[in-house]
Amino acid sequence: MGKFIENETIGACIGGDEFILIVPLANRGKIADIAAGISGELAKYEDPAIPAEKRLSMAIGYGTAYSVKEDFFKAYEDAEKMMRYVKLLDKNSDSRSIMKTHPEIGYRIAMSWSNFEELAPYIPLAP
C-alpha cells in the first residue's frame, strides 16, 4: 500500500483485517486513485484457478470530515457502512468488478493538520 499513499497519510489497523486511512486534505479524485492503485496491486495476485470465494478481496468505504469536532465520527460511520455494503456485494461478485463499477470508492477523511492533534486520541487502533 505504501506506494499509493503519501507521507501525510496515516494508516492504522482497526481490527483483524480492517484498516483506516486518514488522508489529510484529500479530494475525491485522489482517493479514487489510491483505491484503484491498491485494487490493481491486489489483482496482480489473483489466480484464476482459485475459486472466487477463496481469492483475496478488498472492500473500501469512505467518509469525509471537514471539522474534527463535528464530522469525524459521522465520517467514520459512513465509511464503515459503505465498507460493509461493498463486502455484502462482494459475496456475490469479484471485488475487481466492484471497483470497476464504483471507481470512486475510496476511504477518505479529509482534515487539516492543524486539527490532527485534537483528533489523534480518538482514532481507534487495534491493541
Automatic annotation (TrEMBL):
UniProt-listed Pfam families: GGDEF
Domain GGDEF: 1-101
InterPro entries recorded: GGDEF_dom, Nucleotide_cyclase, Rev_trsase/Diguanyl_cyclase
Protein name as it appears in the record: GGDEF domain-containing protein
Organism, scientific name: uncultured spirochete
